Amino acid sequence: MRWIVGALILTVVGYLLRRLLWKELPKQQTPPGLPPLGTDRRLVYDGFAPEIEARIAMLGISLNDAFEERDAGRFDIAWRLVRLSASEWYGVEKIITGLLNTLTKHLPDAQFMVTPRNIQAHRFLSKSMVDYVRVREMLEQFVFSSQRRFQLQLRLLNRAVEIVTDEFRHTCRQAQLVGDSSPEVWTEIDLDFHDFDLIAKEAVLAFRALLASLPSTVLPGLALDLESLLRGKVRARPAPARNKEEFSPKQPHARPN
User: Fold this and answer.
1) At what angle do helices 146-178 and 75-106 cross, to 10 degrees?
2) How far is residue 230's CA from residue 236's CA, in Å, rounded to a whole number?
3) What is the number of structural domains in the chain?
4) Chain segment 85-106, per-residue pLDDT in tens
């Protein structure tokens, strides 16, 4: 019982200290909104972020079609569309996870403080995500370093992708195994997609926030890391035009026979 009381006291003290320290920070360290991107950083952003947005939009359309077939009583077609949507879902999951890992890799290169966003539990709908984010909100009360909090945010999003994807996969498999097409199953799929969409948007915002703080010297390497995540996949939309010298990988020298 004593350790519970002690944990509550530490939580309250940590929260009060955090509020006090944030009030004492100069206003210029917490600018509202995201900083603007220059031309070179905009090229990197436009070469990757719209791809995630387009794939999430296509996933939503596919699931909406499945719901329409469900409403029409064509359950076989509805579940076929869900299976097709699941394939797209898993592809997007790999891209988002790769993006978050790439951001973690380049975080030490940031030239100035990256302001993390406040990811709140009430914005999520599935119970597993609400419970997970609430726990993370409590832990963040003890973290005062902005860079450390941004790193924790990347970890939160990475784990969130796993949680909501595993839940979606489990729901679909169990429902199809037992032939369950109850409203509860479809509601769970709907909530999972809402949270997956929210996580994808937060990952893109984290990408933009870090990109604005990176020096120009690391942009070519970052662009190559991001391009590798899409390599071998059909683009949802054409890549933006680039100058010949900008962010293009060096061609390997031909090996002699």
Assistant:
1) 160
2) 10
3) 1
4) 999 999 999 999 999 999 999 9
